[in-house]
Amino acid sequence: MHGHDLSPSTIAVGAGRPNRVPGGPLNAPITLASALVPGGQSEYGRHGNPTWDSFEQVLGALEGGRALAFASGIAASTALFDLVPAKSVVVAPRGAYYGTVDQLKERARRGQIELRLVDMDNTAEIIAASESAALVWIESPTNPGLQIADIEAITHAAAKSGTAVAVDNTFATPLRQRPLELGADFVVHSASKLLSGHSDVVLGAIVTNSERAHKAIEKRRSTLGAIPGAMETWLAARGIRTLHVRLDRAEANAKELHKRLSAHRLISSSRYPGFGTIIALEVVGGPQVAQKMTEQSDIITYATSLGGVESTWERRRRHPGESESVPEGLIRLSVGIEDVEDLWIDIQNVLAATN
């Protein structure tokens, strides 16, 4: 028995493993079964799978709550939005992940909710908009503008009016930010990103420390059929084992690249929140040059995903659904764990080739 609180890195490695019994496996096995023998936690694959447990236990331990895995990040947010009463007010970021904002706008168009869009770095605006709201959706840092929200101030104000607060913690991860400790009711992840970390999984998750909320979300998952696969949850649990070392390395790379980008004559702006692996940059040549840059790099991959061991980048406004608040030429750079000098040479080469 350990006599002290374990560090997050130790929890990431050890939580969610099977009990230690002679001859037993060190890792949780993959259970490929649509039906289970009655008498346990579940007897049908849509309601539960032993392989989900490992991922949910380790993520829950890291976030300080109980986790539920979903088929994707969008599936997770859908389940949460489904709990919002009809005609209620939802507050959300203007410049957040467009899949989330688009889903909320669609619900607003149908008259299901009233949507109030705010800037995540304007705490006063968020608190004012939250009056009489059912849910405040926080994304911090935002995707891709990297705005930072004052989570504790927002949750403190929301608690006075009984407003629920959900935080998308995909960019920060529980190693850099624990929203439940700051007063949030829900934490949401696209586990496809940093948690799994190898660009081989599509997975989502919700974490809460309310038993009532946990049961309600679990029911929505089963009802919607938004369940994860056994292989996906197994891979994500394996990925979390190295989250701390991957994040430390990629974050160190991101800090160094941001420093160099900020001083480069062909970079008009470089934004970095001081932690995490994402940089938002703009080049002097504008959107056309930005697009060419992302397509011509050798080491950094031109791709829409993020949070993997490999560095990726893209011009975000190439997506029709991206918010108009995002500059046309903004490049979202997800920094990986490659050698930072190799990454810098790659960036310099494409800057020289396209300007």
TrEMBL record:
Positions in coiled-coil regions: 240-267
MF-aspect GO terms: cystathionine gamma-synthase activity
Names of required cofactors: pyridoxal 5'-phosphate
Pfam families the UniProt entry points to: Cys_Met_Meta_PP
Cross-referenced InterPro entries: Cys/Met-Metab_PyrdxlP-dep_enz, PyrdxlP-dep_Trfase, PyrdxlP-dep_Trfase_major, PyrdxlP-dep_Trfase_small
Transmembrane annotation, as ranges: none
Enzyme Commission (EC) number: 2.5.1.48
Region called Disordered, residue ranges: 1-24
Keywords, alphabetical: Coiled coil, Pyridoxal phosphate, Transferase
UniProt keyword annotation of Transferase present: yes
PANTHER family associated with the record: CYSTATHIONINE GAMMA-LYASE (PTHR11808:SF15), TRANS-SULFURATION ENZYME FAMILY MEMBER (PTHR11808)
Family stated for the protein in its record: Belongs to the trans-sulfuration enzymes family.
Protein name, entry field: Cystathionine gamma-synthase
Provenance organism: Aeromicrobium panaciterrae
